[in-house]
Amino acid sequence: MRIAPNPKVDGLREKISTLEGTPRRLAHTVSVCGLIDEALPGRGLPLGCVHEVKGHPASAIAFAGLLSARIPPKGAIFFIEPARSFYPLGLLPFSIDLQHWVHVRARREQDLVWTVLEALRCPQVHAVLAALRAADLTFSRRLQLAAESSGSTGFLFGNMASAITRWRVSPVRNSGWSLELLYCRGGQPGAWQVTWRNGQIEPVAKPAQRELPAERALAG
Amino acid sequence: MPRRLLCLYLSDTSAQVKARLLPWCHRYSPLVADDGCGGIVLDITGCAHLFGGEEALLSDIQSRIRRAGHRVRGAIADTLGAAWALARYSRQVIASGSELPQALNPLPVEALRLPEEVTRALRRVGLSTIAAFQKVGRQALVTRFGSGILLRLDQAFGKAEETITPYRRHPPYSARRMLAEPVATTSAVEYILHDLLQEICARLEKEHLGARRLDLDCYRIDGTVAVCTISTSKPVRSVKHLIRLFSEKLDGIDAGFGIETFILSVQNIDRFDPSQLTLPQFDPHSLPDSTVLDELIDRIGVRLGFQHVARMRICESLLPEYSVEFRSVSAGEMPSALWPEYRIRPVYWVDPPVHIEVATIHPGGGPVQFRLRGDTHRVVKAEGPERLTPEWWRLQSLHWESRDYYRIEDDRGCRFWIYREVRLQRSLSRWFLRGHLP
Fold it and tell me: Smallest Cβ distance to A89: which of B281, B339, B380?
């Protein structure tokens, strides 16, 4: 349901969004894929902010890796995790350039948190992927401010109390993903069935809900 | 300019005391050594004026050591032999070139650092002082007491060369500050450090060099030394950068009753041409800023250890354990190999591999179903096998014959990378989970 347009309310909305820095944030975006971009306010994933990516760890890493490869390079992409479980060769089909990547292993939680914050603050880091367990409201706000100040984009694989977008990536059959946009500031949440080919995300023609029962019947 | 050596005669010659005093003596001179005969020797050539002359230096060093609770006597002369002798046997403690024979001649023969049996033999024949000794012909001395006696005599009078071996080689790039009043606050230490770094970095810049490792030695007033070390992934000579790296560590320094002397030294040095690039992809426009990333990497490295900050490189090996090298950023860059695109690898790595129970249709066939942590996964799709055999030059892989890797998708859509390891004894073949595919 949409409220009838009211010029006064629209004016206030614009004012609030200017105060929140939304126009600046939406100035730089990367495209996810044609269909999904329509649900996002700037017709693409906003840069210079923090996104939460959850779901199956391998799929979440691949999704974040694919998107970070599309960000115009400024220097380095950081992958920060407590123990080494990232295997970069798996990301090669997503057209990443390994030369940009820096891997950091921070065993203690306070070191991990510090590293993520420092990396997000650096203007020569264009993306930070981090296996952060959770971030409370204050800390996720600090992360957001750090990303805004430098223009780098964070993809965090953990519970963020505050994030610009929130994704869940789960693997589905036939080499695909179920991509859910759980939350998006100023955008429309949604769910899509996608596959990837040559580093591109492509929506699957048939919606997920109808395909699954048919497949199950066949397999059974 | 003649060489000037200061010899300290300590009543307590235990190794423990020496180990404390040797580094402490660096506050007077960059060249400090154990004289090998129970004392400490400092090469103070060109250092004395910093302390207001030789007498002032001598009384300063003596009073400080005495205050620390040790009995000490020092002497300054042109040669080690003479300084050693004066410190132990003479009233006169400072002697230069022309005064040397006059100062040494009345001393007993023991002052020549000779073995005990030789001095005893000399005394028995009535040669009890150095003066008496010199009247005897050199040839006669050699035939009776060996050539060592002449060497010691010549060394004392400066006719024979004697080298001293510094207990620690002091690096050529170092700067020091001695304070009138000791400091104990971090902000004061930072201020001095800034001053020292500016001095060193200016020299490094002039000579196109960069520091890789720096030591800050803090000399406390109670005679102990605190050392603070930082290292960097690339040669650095930016004061701002180095101060930030140090600031992480400065809080860990215990100032005790106060620090009175600081010595900053470059322990590891590298060539650093002004036009160094960090990443090959950089376009020339972003060049002036390229150090921001290096600074970040160094800060992370200093805090977490450089072995945990790595760049990833593809190696020429198909075995998944060896195809990627996590190479520390401080180890320098190496070219990456090309990876054959059709060999699909997981994103999420399971290490060590998890043992799984797999059902196959026939022995040696592909997987149909497997159990992982109590859950049964039905295999819907399987691709493989991709058979890898051990590389004979690696010892670790000798106990297995081949590994068949499969990419599989279960009924819930999860994708796994598993393998069957065929051991040399066929009955021992087992299945493992190696990773998760996206």
Answer: B339
Q: Single out the residue in B229, B254, B271 at which a domain terminates.
A: B271
DSSP letter assigned to residue A124: T
Polymer length of chain B: 438
> Average pLDDT in the B347-362 region?
90
In a domain, B169, yes or no: no
Question: What is the rounded CA–CA span in Å between residue A60 and residue A69?
Answer: 14
Determine, for residues A58 and B435 on separate chains, whether the beta-carbon distance falls below 8 Å.
Answer: yes
A59's tokens = 């799929």
CATH number of the structural domain spanning residue B236: 3.30.1490.100
Asked if A76's CB is within 8 angstroms of B286's CB, the reply is no
Query: Looking at the predicted structure, is the pLDDT value of residue B113 above 70?
Result: yes
- Residue-wise pLDDT for B48-104, tens only, equals 888 888 999 999 999 998 988 888 999 999 888 899 999 888 888 888 878 888 888
ipTM surpassing 0.95, yes or no? Answer: no
Whole-angstrom CA distances from B316 to B311, B330, B332, B386, B387 are 16, 22, 18, 17, 17
Measured on CA atoms in the order B183, B189, B191, B193, is the torsion positive or negative? positive
Residue B170: per-residue pLDDT? 60
Shared-domain flag, residues B225 and B92: no
Nearest to A171 by CA among A198, A193, A202: A193
What is the spatial distance between Cα A16 and Cα A70, in angstroms, rounded to a whole number?
30
Domain range holding B321? 305-338
Question: CA dihedral in degrees (B394, B397, B398, B401; nearest 10)?
Answer: -130
Give pLDDT, residue B308.
Answer: 93
User: What is the Rg, in whole angstroms, of the alpha carbon atoms belonging to chain B?
Assistant: 34
